[in-house]
Design brief:
By secondary structure, the chain is α/β, with parallel strands linked by helices. Helices cover 41% and strands 18% of the residues. The strands form two sheets. The protein has an eight-stranded parallel β-barrel with strand order 1-2-6-7-8-9-10-11, surrounded by six helices. Strands 4-5 form a two-stranded antiparallel ribbon. Strand 2 and strand 3 form a beta hairpin. It starts with a helix and ends in a 12-residue tail after the last helix. The chain is built from eleven helices and eleven strands. It binds magnesium ion. Magnesium ion (MG) binds next to strand 2.
Length: 268
């Protein structure tokens, strides 16, 4: 064995504790860290602020406008405008509560690039027509490639059509999570997706889905766990990610909280 392979072997052994450490629950800021000064849901500031408190990831929502612009916002109807049917120019005239314009995805990804330690969790909003969803997915893929952030982006979708379109666009290397809560992890795995991202309500009804997901080699995210009681419940259950409107609370909690042993649900 030459020196290089000896060192490589040592590196593998040394990396084992690090690998097991990654099985801990991670924090995803829901619509960014908006619940703080000078921030707002889905604002550029909310991504920077999520990064500043050490979130693992920060989530955004992306709409495709009628004139094919990608904009970052949650609501289907925001300040009286329908995101899917209003012209881009009208949407840009609106202001978020912190004074920012509604960001384009292009602007948002430029911000994401400035914060390499925080992952982007990108939700593509379902659209009224599958062909529009396909346009949206293709354009999102183009922009992720353009900004070079594919390796630190996870895609989340309610629409199975969008999930399958993304899977074709990214056969490997990009994680796609399904949000709608109506499929078992086994079925989600069969569709070739990488995880479930289900509501607190769904996962409390099916706590066994955490183990089933891990047994099938896929991951679990839960939304939106906002009370300490729910946060502790899902840490104990062994989910991989918790999406929350109070990422600052969860970051602190994870620092001190000793999870009740539930190793059987954890990823090995
Ligand atoms: Mg969302």
């Amino acid at each position: 064995m030459n020196l290089k392979s000896t060192l490589f072997g040592a590196a593998i052994i040394a990396s084992f504790p690090i690998l097991t450490a990654t099985a801990e629950t991670k924090v995803v800021a829901h619509r960014g860290f908006w619940n703080t000064e000078n921030s707002a849901q889905n604002s550029l500031a909310s991504f920077a602020k999520a990064d500043s408190i050490g979130c693992f990831g920060s989530e955004i929502d992306v709409w495709l406008t009628t004139d094919d612009h990608l904009v970052v916002n949650h609501d289907k109807v925001y300040q009286g405008l329908f995101m899917e049917t209003a012209p881009f120019e009208d949407i840009r005239a609106l202001r978020l509560p912190n004074g920012e314009k509604i960001p384009t995805l292009d602007e948002y990804l430029a911000e994401v690039r400035k914060h390499p330690d925080t992952r982007l969790v990108l939700e593509m909003k379902s659209l009224t027509d599958y062909s529009r969803e396909d346009v949206s997915a293709n354009r999102i893929a183009e922009l992720l490639r353009k900004h070079g952030v594919l390796d630190r982006t996870d895609i989340i979708v309610f629409s199975l059509n969008a999930a399958m379109t993304f899977r074709k666009l990214f056969p490997t290397g990009v994680k796609i999570f399904y949000l709608d809560g109506d499929l078992s992890p086994k079925k989600v795995k069969k569709l070739g997706l990488n995880g479930i991202d289900y509501s607190v309500k769904v996962l409390k009804k099916h706590p066994e889905w955490v183990k089933q997901a891990h047994d099938n080699g896929i991951e679990v995210n839960v939304w939106t766990a906002n009370t300490e009681e729910d946060m502790k419940y899902f840490i104990d259950l062994g989910v991989d990610y918790i999406t929350t409107d109070h990422p600052d609370t969860l970051v602190k909690l994870l620092d001190s909280y000793k999870p009740k042993s539930n190793k059987k649900n954890k990823k090995s």
